[in-house]
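Task: sequence design from structure.
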């Protein structure tokens, strides 16, 4: 039995801007550790610089990432695949090599989830579906920007979206965040 299933969300226009959600298998709170959040930021930076990825907005929560992304080379699926492959390997390596009180449990869980897919993997960090939604209108864009930036507020982590470090909210309020982004409005 496969752990994942298709829900009809697919990237149909590889050059279009998309709202996407990357979720950790089993909703495990991997990003409660700074080093794993930093792996995501470093990978976004690399994809932005070397793969033509435009990052319109993002937020890194404890077990998922929301982002608005565009591939300037019309290859969004390829860039996302590479991003998730790299971050999965980097997170796995960090779990194995750096101090981690949850090491055995995390390795067990990511192996457990890998064994329940059809992909012949020994270790699976991310779910297979990115829940992509193409953004074509200004109203939908603003709705998704607000959703991304208000996520830490809704979760009770901060009272003001601009105070959440691992988000682009501060950039939309005239400040400078941790990751260079491509403002959309």
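Answer:
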């Amino acid at each position: 039995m496969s752990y994942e299933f298709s829900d009809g969300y697919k990237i149909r226009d590889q050059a279009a801007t998309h709202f996407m959600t990357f979720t950790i298998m089993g909703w495990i709170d991997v990003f409660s550790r700074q080093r794993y959040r930093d792996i995501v930021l470093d990978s976004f930076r690399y994809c932005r610089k070397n793969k033509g990825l435009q990052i319109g907005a993002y937020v890194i929560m404890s077990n998922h990432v929301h982002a608005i992304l565009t591939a300037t080379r019309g290859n969004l699926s390829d860039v996302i695949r590479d991003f998730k492959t790299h971050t999965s390997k980097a997170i796995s390596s960090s779990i194995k090599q750096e101090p981690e009180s949850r090491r055995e449990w995390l390795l067990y869980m990511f192996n457990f989830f890998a064994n329940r897919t059809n992909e012949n993997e020994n270790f699976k960090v991310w779910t297979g579906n990115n829940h992509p939604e193409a953004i074509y209108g200004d109203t939908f864009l603003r709705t998704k920007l607000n959703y991304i930036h208000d996520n830490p507020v809704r979760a009770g982590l901060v009272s003001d979206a601009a105070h959440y470090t691992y988000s682009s909210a501060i950039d939309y309020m005239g400040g400078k965040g941790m990751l260079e982004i491509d403002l959309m409005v």
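Confidence is low (pLDDT under 50) at residues 1-7.
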